[in-house]
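Please decode residue identities from the backbone states below.
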């Protein structure tokens, strides 16, 4: 079986890895680079039970366990470790609030109050998402997977109306027995070729600091009031490699056609840096290693699209994971591999994520995207 995976982010790499474990050597077609978009620029935060009470709960719980297993199975270090996770607030409140807060986090500024523990080392963890994605891809390649640096521009149909024979790339045709669309928010481009629901991109900004050993394994979610009165929600993730990742400031800036053209919004990085300096003297003094932006893929109802595309026998989609893409990638990859090879997923019920639950983009809608 020849499986073509369009997209070299964490979802595509996970599918390739789990296919390779079943003896299927996939071809991953990626235009920019492995983990070049959100898969390499996100926080890599993992939570066991934060999706409980939603259709995502079984996916998240199974995937959280898979992360721990993969960290043991694959001979590569992507910074997997368990965390203690706290919540708090900063800005617009007096320092007395911090004195009354029950949790003391020593690396924070005096104006930050930590008033709740959101997760323990039993329920929260982290990875370096770019390193995790690259390791999955290398592990798949060691079992025969192929990575091609090309841009997919369409699908190829030669025979019946319900099957495709491969994909069109700028250099010609790549033939395959199954096709998976896993292009994050750029999956909306495939709506011009296939009956796919809309996938939107929500932009987020982040900074990566060089902090060494000064910050422990403590993640932080903060309600932060800027000087202009706007409320933000920065997230702070010290990593095992001596860096610290901080993200905030979402926007609906239009998605560029090329992932390589994603740039921070004007002024966003400066605002985020000011927040970081106010949150912690360690961050205020640390060197900035990366100032970046990425787009998270979101479907209209907030749930991912995972499954076979309606009306087609051998075309699948896996995208729309929003902020939980890194967390839910392993379980998604495992389930999609089962769906392709066995005709059904055994480890998870994928029915809540069936792309057929949402209408496909109409021709007029596609022409406006």
């Amino acid at each position: 079986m020849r499986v073509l995976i369009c997209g070299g982010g964490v979802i595509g790499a996970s599918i390739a890895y789990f296919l390779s474990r079943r003896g299927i050597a996939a071809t991953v077609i990626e235009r920019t680079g492995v983990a070049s978009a959100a898969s390499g620029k996100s926080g890599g935060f993992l939570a066991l039970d934060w999706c409980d009470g939603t259709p995502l709960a079984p996916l998240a719980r199974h995937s959280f366990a898979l992360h721990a297993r993969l960290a043991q199975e694959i001979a590569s270090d992507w910074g997997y470790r368990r965390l203690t996770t706290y919540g708090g607030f900063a800005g617009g409140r007096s320092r007395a609030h911090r004195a009354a807060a029950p949790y003391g986090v020593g690396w924070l500024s005096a104006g930050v109050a930590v008033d709740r523990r959101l997760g323990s080392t039993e329920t929260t963890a982290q990875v370096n998402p770019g390193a995790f994605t690259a390791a999955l891809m290398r592990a798949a390649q060691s079992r025969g997977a192929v990575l091609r640096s090309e841009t997919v521009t369409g699908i190829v149909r030669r025979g019946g109306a319900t099957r495709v024979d491969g994909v069109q790339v700028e250099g010609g045709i790549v033939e395959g027995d199954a096709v998976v669309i896993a292009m994050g928010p750029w999956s909306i481009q495939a709506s011009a070729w296939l009956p796919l629901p809309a996938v939107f991109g929500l932009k987020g900004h982040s900074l990566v600091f060089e902090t060494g050993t000064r910050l422990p394994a403590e993640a932080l979610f903060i309600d932060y009031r800027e000087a202009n009165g706007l409320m933000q929600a920065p997230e702070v993730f010290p990593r095992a490699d001596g860096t610290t990742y901080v993200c905030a400031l979402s926007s609906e800036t239009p998605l560029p056609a090329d992932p390589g053209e994603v740039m921070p919004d004007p002024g966003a990085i400066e605002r985020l840096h000011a927040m970081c300096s106010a949150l912690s003297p360690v961050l205020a003094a640390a060197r900035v290693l990366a100032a970046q932006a990425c787009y998270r893929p979101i479907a209209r109802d907030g749930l991912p699209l995972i499954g076979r595309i309606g009306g087609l026998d051998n075309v699948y989609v896996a995208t729309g994971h929003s902020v939980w893409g890194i967390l839910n990638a392993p379980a998604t990859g495992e389930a999609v591999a089962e769906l392709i090879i066995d005709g059904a997923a055994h480890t998870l019920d994928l029915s809540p994520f069936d792309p057929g639950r949402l209408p496909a983009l109409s021709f007029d809608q596609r022409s406006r995207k």
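Observation: The chain has two domains: 3-77+127-198+300-368, 84-120+201-299.
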